[in-house]
Amino acid sequence: MQHENVDAESFQQILDATQRFIEKTLLPLERQVEEEDAVPASVAESMRELGFFGLTIPPEYGGLGISMTQEAQFLMLMGTTSPAFRYVFSTNIGLGTRGLLLTGTERQKQEYLPRFASGELVAALAMTEPDAGSDAASLKTSARREGDTYVLNGTKRFITNAPRADLITVLARTDPAAKGYQGISAFLVPRNSPGLSIGKPERKMGQHGSQVADVILENVVVPADHLIGEEEGQGFKMAMKVLDRGRINVASSAVGMARRLIDESLNYARERKQFGQPIADFQLVQAMLADCETEYYAARCMTLDAAAKLDREGAAVQEAACAKYFSSEMLSRVADRAVQIFGGAGYIAEYPVERLYRDARVLRLYEGTSQIMQLVIAKNALRA
């Protein structure tokens, strides 16, 4: 159970400051970020000052410790601008630090969490491999114990923030004889470790400005105390605990992105004239807008409900999977309708819906594909 460390009034101030930051700084930079495939360093500096890097890290480690419900609301707001901005800090408040917070030793938390919270260090989580995506239990990266060190070998694929990360949580197999997810452990691996190299950032369909690259480990030696937690074999369990929150995060981002697309569509429909009147007057355009608003509202309610359950009970496997599945699919439908409402203009890069349409697509793949969500949801329903 999580009690809110940030009261409603203080949290509203955070949201208000974020809204101003989006309007004054981020929205005007969207096109530049898209074209240069990079977020200016000044943006990260502003985010450090605003405390974004420590939002979810508990106060005892230098963060604010906002609840899951508050985090969902914050990410919905951040979703109204380019996703690249979110990735500047998102691994520090999400996947990159959550495992450490849940299963790390007190010494590990004291050493690293305050530096993540301040933005001094950038985090990343390296789980996916060339042959292990949705099937994380089949990962091959190995960690061999040698005295008071571990030697890591393997390749991690499509790792968010890898080019910028200072400390990477790497999932590796410590027991080659163990089947499936048993025998998988998690390690804190500094970026500057000899033998660790980062591949060239991938060219992506959308979400330009957020960098994704391979992490290659060739006989990388880390001290034994860089194993997260007290014992081997807990890595997969740790990753699964992190996923509930990660899936609610994706759902929240989808809700925010849908809001932006709907607002762009509403404004365009009021301004664009055909047959002597605004296209907003046409009932078939109104029908598309109504479908967008309805699905957006449903996704928002589901996501906040899943977040509230996670706050109350510490777990929300079914609700998180449902919210992530519905919200990411909803976003793709909303993005498609937005392009339709814009007509030919929706296909032109001059208008933001062209970029938002491409940015939306990957949310159906993150933190488990829609098909994996369907399996999770069905298995949980059958078990219940």
Can you walk through the features of this model?
This protein is an alpha+beta fold and 384 residues long. It has three domains: 8-118, Acyl-CoA dehydrogenase/oxidase, N-terminal domain (Butyryl-Coa Dehydrogenase, subunit A, domain 1, Orthogonal Bundle), CATH 1.10.540.10; 123-233, Butyryl-CoA Dehydrogenase, subunit A, domain 2 (Beta Barrel); 237-383, Butyryl-CoA Dehydrogenase, subunit A, domain 3, CATH 1.20.140. The protein is built from twelve helices and nine strands. The protein has a four-stranded antiparallel β-sheet with strand order 2-3-7-6, with no helix packed on it. Strands 1-4-5 form a three-stranded mixed β-sheet, with helices on one face. Helix 10 runs antiparallel to helix 12. The protein is globular, with a radius of gyration of 21 Å. The model has no long low-confidence stretch (mean pLDDT 95).
Descriptive labels:
alpha+beta; Butyryl-CoA Dehydrogenase, subunit A, domain 2; 12 helices; Butyryl-CoA Dehydrogenase, subunit A, domain 3; 3-stranded mixed sheet; Butyryl-Coa Dehydrogenase, subunit A, domain 1; 3 domains; 384 residues; 14% strand; 4-stranded antiparallel sheet; 9 strands; 52% helix
Bin the strand percentage: 5-15%
CATH architecture grouping of the largest domain? Up-down Bundle
Shape: globular
Q: In this structure, how is the largest beta sheet organized? A: 4 strands, antiparallel
Percent of residues in helical segments?
A: 40-55%
List the helices and strands and how they pair.
Elements: H1 8-36, H2 41-50, H3 68-78, H4 83-87, H5 90-93, H6 95-103, H7 106-118, E1 123-126, E2 142-146, E3 149-160, E4 167-173, E5 184-190, E6 196-198, E7 212-223, H8 235-271, E8 273-274, E9 277-278, H9 283-313, H10 317-342, H11 352-360, H12 370-383
Parallel strand pairs: 1-4
Antiparallel strand pairs: 2-3, 3-7, 4-5, 6-7, 8-9
Helix pairs in contact: 1-3, 3-8, 3-9, 6-8, 8-9, 8-10, 8-11, 9-10, 10-11, 10-12
